[in-house]
């Protein structure tokens, strides 16, 4: 006979997994949602760091490069160097007697009816098309100068707007403000709406009816009228948009959370918590709100682009973000007015907005599945 010795019982138990860890694994397995998350991170990093790498400032105007089409080619192009020199010479009140270009260096012979003031040559570097000039020859009477200047290499990957500003830099800087407005207003709506809706649904009865009538009254107020009333007391700008949007966008969140709370408070685990003596705030924090995370996250991800669109609407009316600040809504409004002559002005900010919108929707669906406690862990 063979004797088999057992050192101990075989255990197949796995360590307990927290809700956050389980949700993280589910989200990573959901490829569209995870790709959307990476896309949003890339857009956010581009908006934060990109303006420092484009070589342009958002407010810098290039008057000689107005409505420049997108492309990888450096500006000014060879065929536009001489016209640019002629325009600058006209501003300097000089005449271009001779012109030559070689290896990115222009050589000019400038003449005038009277002695030339060297300070007028500052028009060349101020245009950002040419570097600081070097005087090679000067006539005895000072009415003729021979100068050299290097042609600058400027790149506009997304083109320029109607004033000659780099559109890529402006889109990235605008993304900072649009994302800031979307995230800040959404966070305020979450804090107010979740708290208000959970309390209303949990208490029920006359308190719930009164709280919901307040929501109905706020729903009845026209949004634009509310903004105009705020403008009577405050100056139009970024903070006005944040206050106006956050003041009305929590209403939908409150209704969603109230509906979820009313369906959850009759469940056995909530009754067990009440029987154990937990207070209402503790039940809300430990049981009600965690079980409504799915609908809350979906609503929040849909709220961010809606807030951005609301900001676009206000900015189009002149009630939102004001110059010199800008946002995707402001750029879309500018692009719509120049659609025929410069369609890229609309395509660039609208493309960023659409990418962010689609990514937020996909991420919201993925998070809803990842945070749903009723779904089993996939094997």
Can you walk through the features of this model?
By secondary structure, this protein is α+β, with helices and mostly antiparallel strands. It folds into two domains: 33-53 and 161-370, Orthogonal Bundle (MetI-like fold); 76-150, Gyrase A, domain 2 (2-Layer Sandwich), CATH 3.30.1360. Helix content is 58%, strand content 7%. The protein has helices spanning 19-29, 31-49, 78-92, 123-126, 167-203, 205-220, 223-233, 238-264, 268-275, 280-288, 293-316, 328-337, 344-370; strands spanning 95-102, 105-111, 134-138, 144-150. It has a four-stranded antiparallel β-sheet, covered by helices on one side. A hairpin with a 5-residue loop joins strand 3 (134-138) and strand 4 (144-150). Helix 11 (293-316) runs antiparallel to helix 13. Mean pLDDT is 83; it is low at 1-16. The chain crosses the membrane at residues 33-52, 177-199, 219-248, 295-321, 342-363. This is Oligopeptide transport system permease protein OppC. Keywords: Cell inner membrane, Cell membrane, Membrane, Peptide transport, Protein transport, Transmembrane, Transmembrane helix, Transport. It is found in: Cell inner membrane; Cell membrane.
């Amino acid at each position: 006979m063979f004797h088999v010795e057992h050192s101990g019982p075989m255990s197949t138990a796995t360590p307990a997994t927290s809700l956050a860890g389980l949700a993280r694994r589910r989200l990573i397995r959901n490829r569209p949602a995870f790709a959307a998350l990476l896309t949003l991170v890339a857009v956010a990093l581009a908006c934060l760091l990109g303006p420092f790498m484009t070589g342009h400032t958002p407010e810098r105007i290039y008057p000689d490069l107005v409505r420049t089409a997108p492309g990888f080619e450096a500006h000014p192009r060879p065929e536009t160097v001489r016209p640019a020199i002629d325009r600058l010479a006209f501003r300097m009140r000089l005449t271009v007697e001779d012109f030559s270009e070689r290896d990115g260096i222009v050589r000019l012979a400038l003449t005038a009816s009277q002695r030339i003031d060297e300070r007028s040559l500052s028009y060349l570097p101020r245009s950002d098309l040419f570097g600081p000039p070097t005087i090679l020859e000067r006539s005895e009477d000072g009415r003729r100068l021979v100068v050299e200047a290097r042609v600058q290499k400027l790149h506009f990957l997304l083109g320029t707007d109607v004033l000659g500003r780099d559109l890529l830099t402006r889109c990235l800087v605008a993304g900072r403000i649009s994302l800031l407005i979307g995230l800040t207003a959404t966070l305020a709506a979450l804090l107010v709406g979740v708290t208000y809706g959970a309390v209303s649904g949990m208490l029920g009865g006359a308190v719930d009816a009164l709280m919901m009538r307040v929501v109905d009254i706020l729903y009845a107020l026209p949004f634009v009228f509310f903004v105009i009333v705020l403008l009577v007391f405050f100056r139009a700008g970024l903070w006005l948009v944040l206050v106006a949007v956050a003041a009305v966008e929590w209403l939908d969140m409150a209704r969603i959370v109230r509906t979820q709370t009313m369906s959850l408070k009759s469940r056995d685990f909530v009754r067990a918590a009440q029987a154990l003596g937990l207070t209402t705030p503790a039940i809300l924090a430990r049981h009600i709100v965690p079980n409504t995370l799915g609908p809350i996250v979906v609503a929040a991800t849909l709220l961010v682009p809606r807030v951005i669109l609301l900001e676009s609407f206000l900015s189009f009316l002149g009630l939102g973000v004001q110059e010199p600040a800008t946002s995707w809504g402001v750029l879309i409004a500018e692009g719509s007015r120049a659609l025929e002559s410069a369609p890229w002005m609309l395509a660039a900010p609208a493309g960023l907005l659409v990418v962010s919108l689609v990514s937020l929707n996909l991420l919201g669906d993925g998070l809803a599945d990842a945070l749903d406690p009723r779904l089993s862990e996939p094997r």
